[in-house]
Amino acid sequence: MDAPVISVKNLAISYETSRGDVPAVRNVTFDIYRGQTLGLVGESGCGKSTVAYGLVNYLGRNGKISGGDIVFQGQSLVGRSGEELRKLRGNSIGMVYQDPFTSLNPAMNVGEQMMEVLTVHQKISTEAARDKCLKMLQRVYMPSPEKILERYPHQISGGQQQRVVIAMALLNNPSLLIMDEPTTALDVTIEAAVLDLIADLRRDFDTAILFISHNLGVVARVCERVGVMYAGELVELAMANEIFANPRHPYTQGLMRALPRLGVDKASSALYPIRGRVPSPSRLPPGCTFEPRCDYATEACRTNKQVFRALHTPITQDAATEPDVLGSHKVRCQFAEQIDPKAWVPAETLALYGRSDQFGKIPETVLDVDMLSTHYKSGGTSLLGAFGLGKRETVKAVDGVSFKLPRGKSLGVVGESGSGKSTLVKTIIGLEDMTSGKAQFMSFSLEKSARQRDLSLVKELQMVFQNPDATLNPAYSVGKQIERPLRRFGVVPSNQVRDEVIRLLREVKLDEHYYDRLPRQLSGGEKQRVGIARAFAGRPDLVLADEPVSALDVSVQAAVLNLLLGIQKDQGTTMIFIAHDLSVVRFFCDYIAVMYCGQIMEIGPAEAIYSPPYHPYTESLLAAVPIPDPTVQQSHIRLDGAIPSPANPPSGCRFHTRCPRRGLVPGDKCVTTVPTWQTIRTSDDDNDSHRIFCHIPAEELSKLEQALH
Amino acid sequence: MLNFIVKKAFSLLLTLFLASLLVFFFLEIAPGNIAINSLGNTITEEQEASFNAQNGLDQPAITRYIRWLIGSDWTAQSAVGKPLTRLYNEKNRQYSWWVVDTNGTLYQNYTQDGETMIRVERQPDGSEIETEMGPEIWKTDAEGFPTFWGVTREGQAAMWVKGEKLESWVLTKAAWKNSAGAPRKYIPLQMGLLRGDPGVSFFTGRPVMETLVTRIKNTLLLGGIAFLVVMPLALALGMLAGLNEGTWIDRFLSSTSLLATGTPEFVSGILLILIFTLWLDVLPGAVVITNDNSLFEKPSMLVLPILTLTLIELGYVLRITRTSMVEVMRTNYIRTAQLKGLPRWQIVLKHAFKNAMMAPITIIIQHINWLIGGIVVVESVFGYPGLGSYVREAALFKDVFAVEAAAMVFIIISVFTQLFADIIYTYLNPRIRYQ
Amino acid sequence: MAAINLKDNNALRPSAFARFREAISPLTQSKTAMLGFIMVMFWVIIGLFADDILFRPACWSEDSECKATPWLARYEAQQSFRGQILKDPTAEHWLGTDRQGRDIWARVAHGTRIVLALAPISVIVALLVGGSLGLIAGYFGKWVDEIIMRILDAMIGIPSILMYLVILAALGPSYLTIVLAVTVTGAPGIAKLVRSLTLDIKTRDYIAAAQTRGESPWYIMFVEILPNARGPIMIDAMLRMGYAVFAMGTLGFLGLGLPPPSPDWGSIVNAGRTHLLGGHPWGALAGSLSTATLVLGLNLMADGLQEQLNKYR
């Protein structure tokens, strides 16, 4: 067998701070071989990016490798001079970054930035370099590469930017490619295409790849070997199939239990969060780092540091002392062999939140949206625009959306960025003005903006936001922020406000000590809970949740989802739940609407959306969504082209420019004619019907193959 | 890109317009009487009224603003019914206004009794011939008065009414002189600021423009040299500090620049005079102008003023550049460049430099306003005969037209420099260049 | 678990002293800010105790005069000493005497009070005007923003020194004119700062949360937005205080400051500078260096606090 391209032994990295050295990464041991992709996963703050930058010794002024060794192509990288490292960087080690836009220099065109990678590391003429860049851009399937070379980064789309960064990393044919969350900033359909590209390139270039991601699904798709990091340590390392099928470390097992699998819903299963939170690197537990959160922890775990070892070897046998055999399964847990994940019982039994029917046969309709449109103007760029006279573009963010929502149910809205899902919700709650159409909440019209609505209506509609760091006002304590809606809506008499706040805090599983805390003293999950308490304080009938869990780590996400489900069930709240993660929506919602370019493409009961007949766009989304299970097969459908601008939507069916099933419709009907709604299934309950906005007849759509199997 | 520049130019024009309004209305409308300010507080009410009438100060503000901005000769021409022309007298260095008669001769008018109008005709050699005009010149106006429009000896278009024996008061060098046979209406003649005539100084009696020209030259010399010294130095040192963030070079440069910006120009000026003139006695502490070429004959006079200006501007620009450089060096694209394996000099020159220049260039040029403040002070410290000391003196003596004119010149300089900076900015920034 | 909660509980309800410490921690954590703070406090103490105005309410009325503190200002600002004209420093007159035979140190000490009263007042007025304009422009946007910002941009386009000269030439020097001049020149800059902060903060979700509660724009502007902008605003205010001191000194120096016999620092410099080249630099020097140290102190404070603020981000 070949020698590994890179071999990391007991790597430790620390940062100097005013309070002494903080160990960000410890005891990381792995090898990567040619043509192999190793995925590193873990929640935020677990040190995976630090490992990536540590490999090229790019740790900033206060970071340093404080122990262990990195052997790259037979030579140690630790303690090498800056000049020697510089010659490796960009040459035999390439890197791809999370945010392609900020990673490209805004003041230089793409060609200059690509060509210098070649000219700095080898003697090559400008023409030859340019030629190579062109070839590489073609290789990463970039449309019209000549033009791209002349462009500046702001002139190309996010997916194209990431292709440029990947092409740039590959120019010198590196032996090792480090990818740090390369698809995190991209939409799911574009992500799928970039992941395909990465898989192709690895095959063709035979490169070793270190692939870092927080998304288990993404890792499952591209990596054959996966390492799990926790609190700066590698806790488990095995082949991807093995780790997803048979995780041995309690943390890995916990992650799997916290993750909603696509196709699973709240009626049939529960998500189990991992209790507690990741320790900060400056305050690590004395024994096993996972001990405080572990269900299997014993007294020994509290005191003994755990050794990273291969399964079925003595618990003191450090894996770093032996070669890293491909296919070996290593764990940092002395009880790894004994723990049986199937025998795991949750500390507290979580109720299943079935599809509730307690409101009678046909629940009343709470929200009725009819042909709702929200258009807004954006500043034009014509010369006259300078004087405020020019033509302005109309952005059709939401364009003719209709649906009904019965009491106590949840509607999930999915779609890529720019699909108008956020604008839809903002229009309903009155943060954006509707342009035309109707929206009715119970007997109230939602025509007016929130500011002009009756307080009694305002009270019934509340919102939960995406970004935990922005959801709370940093200037006020938690208690004050939950108090405000209570006082404003007069929910309880003013002498009981404090008690009510504490009751609400308890309801979101925070105790009363949180009353006086400031937002900056809370973790992301805690902030999100306070945001939920604030939204539910006025006991609203309709809660609109705009990606409430997408900024949270997996283990925290499960807890917040459970919390929302619990409160919804207790209060019989109706919800609209926006998400880009199809598994989360499937788990959480009773109904799902798929939006594209300001319109709903398909709407119906959650389970109906996930199998044929479905809209070709839904099919593409399902084919693209990363599934944290390497055994699941997905049909290979990839969308071409960019998401059209809502300022200038395509004619006819808005999806026709990217539709993979256009061949099923003869002629140019898709281009010229707006489709009509096809009702696939009707039931007595109008809310329960499944409708598709497509020219392809329902029978044909039913014949489409299952996107997931 | 063109859009951006047009937009900027438009907004700067608006700035100019608003600035002119502000300057004019503050100075002329605000409480504080121009007549008393110019003539002293011993004048009688009659004298004040006459002064105001002769100088158009009794007119509504908007009329005066228009006259100040674009002149009054065109309204006067239609009142007189004949073209008017302005001549410059080399000897007493003053303007005079004349009516151009149909046959091309130039004349002015006066009357001593309100009955007989005297026509003063200018000869090609500059001498004047006085003739009495006949009674046929009096035309009956809409209200039935026999009136005559002409140009006075003092340079106003004026309307006399036959038989009216009005008195006017004029302060000559010696004393007040009153004359009978004064006109009923005056339109003080001027070309207006936009046409290069901001009026006549109440204080010196000379056209403001004349003084202004030499002063502007001197100031541009001082400010220009200071700018040329400061910019390259400050940008280079700022980049040096930014690239070496946290090291002793950075700390030294940062604290020095903080000290320099925190010290008012009059303080550093005084300290420099103390050190270099009083104690070391190597440089002159004041600028003495004996002839037009004094500054070039003895350039050492310029050293201390320039040094003073440099000190304060250097600190400011250095700090801005440093901050910008530090920010750029922390960006992801610099990380990319480093991980591409580019050598440091290439990262700095190709990747960091242009981006680091982008942010400060507009801020730095906006700082031209501070440079102007510095110039006013520095010119006063060193007695430098520039626009700055001119505007200060004018403000001290409440010489309204002079303050207005000098202030507008400064504002125009400032506005056009900013436009220039915006153009450089669009050139540097491809995001605007290729919108 | 219980033990941890107890500990947290203690941390949650800090004593008044701890809260005070926390509030001023940015100051104490930065050496730069601390140095600046000491420099400013030096002048504040001199201003407060130059005479016994704090302790003898009787001297607030016209009948009785305040007595100069013997260990501080030593003499009255206007007290002139016979035969002591333009003297160099002695034990009797720490900084020498001026042309009228007045003690320069006594004048500087009394002048502190004028400087330290006018600078904050004018900056606060400018903050009120500029802050409100900025909030309104930033929050309402559209044409309100357009109109306010066009006018403010025009005002920023005018060099502040000209603004000062124009206003003072028009209205004549007085406390009120100086406050007015600093307000007119300072407010546009503050408004721009507050506007950009508002534009940033108003996109945060907690503002949307307030809007979904149907809160009034004024509540959102002053209760939800403003408190989150206070850090940068305070730093800016400190810098502006420096500018104001700077400007007052400059105006005094240019002869456009407060009329004599005001002992403000600018006037002291102006009176002293005519004797500078004659070998009597003490008056000019004392006024100059006082101004410079106070401005520097304020700048250092702003600088240090800015650094701390960046660290928090």
List the helices and strands and how they pair.
The complex is a heterotrimer of chains A (709), B (435) and C (313).
Chain A (H helix, E strand, L loop, with lengths): L5 E12 L2 E13 L4 E5 L6 H8 L7 E10 L2 E2 L5 H7 L4 E4 L3 H4 L6 H12 L4 H14 L5 H6 L7 H13 L5 E5 L7 H18 L2 E6 L2 H7 L2 E6 L2 E7 H6 L4 H9 L40 H5 L5 E2 L19 E2 L33 E14 L14 E14 L3 E5 L6 H9 L6 E6 L2 E2 L9 H6 E4 L3 H4 L6 H11 L8 H11 L16 H13 L5 E5 L7 H18 L2 E5 L3 H7 L2 E6 L2 E7 H4 L6 H9 L44 H4 L4 E5 L8 E4 L4 H5 L7
Parallel strand pairs in A: 3-8, 3-9, 6-7, 7-8, 15-20, 15-21, 18-19, 19-20
Antiparallel strand pairs in A: 1-2, 1-4, 4-5, 9-10, 10-12, 11-12, 13-14, 13-16, 16-17, 21-22, 22-24, 23-24
Chain B lengths: L1 H28 L4 H6 L5 H10 L6 H10 L2 H8 L3 E6 L4 E7 L5 E6 L5 E6 L5 E5 L6 E2 L5 E6 L4 E6 L4 E6 L4 E7 L2 E4 L19 H36 L4 H15 L2 H15 L14 H4 L2 H30 L2 H8 L4 H23 L1 H15 L4 H10 L3 H29 L1 H4 L2
Antiparallel strand pairs in B: 1-2, 2-3, 3-4, 4-5, 6-7, 7-8, 8-11, 9-10
Chain C lengths: L1 H11 L3 H8 L1 H5 L1 H19 L54 H37 L1 H16 L2 H12 L3 H27 L3 H8 L4 H37 L11 H9 L8 H31 L1
Descriptive notes:
The complex is a heterotrimer of chains A (709), B (435) and C (313). With 709 residues, chain A is of the alpha/beta class. Chain A folds into 3 domains: 6-92 and 174-262 and 269-341, Rossmann fold, CATH 3.40.50; 106-171, no CATH class; 370-702, Rossmann fold (3-Layer(aba) Sandwich), CATH 3.40.50. Chain A is 30% helix and 21% strand. Chain A contains 24 helices and 24 strands. The model of chain A is unreliable at 380-386 (pLDDT under 50). With 435 residues, chain B is an alpha+beta fold. Chain B has 2 domains: 43-70 and 72-189, no CATH class; 208-428, Orthogonal Bundle (MetI-like fold), CATH 1.10.3720. Chain B has 16 helices and 11 strands. A 5-stranded antiparallel beta sheet of chain B has the order 1-2-3-4-5. Chain B has a 4-stranded antiparallel beta sheet with strand order 6-7-8-11, covered by helices on one side. In chain B, a hairpin with a 5-residue loop joins strand 2 and strand 3 (106-111). Chain B is elongated. The relative contact order of chain B is 0.11. The mean pLDDT of chain B is 81. Chain C is mainly α. Chain C has a domain at 104-311: MetI-like (MetI-like fold, Orthogonal Bundle), CATH 1.10.3720. Chain C is 70% helix and 0% strand. Chain C has 12 helices and no strands. Chain C has helices at residues 2-12, 16-23, 25-29, 31-49, 104-140, 142-157, 160-171, 175-201, 205-212, 217-253, 265-273, 282-312. The chains are: A alpha/beta (709), B alpha+beta (435), C mainly alpha (313). Chains in contact: A-B, A-C, B-C. Chains B and C meet through helix 1, helix 7, helix 8, helix 13 and helix 14 of B and helix 6, helix 7, helix 10 and helix 12 of C.
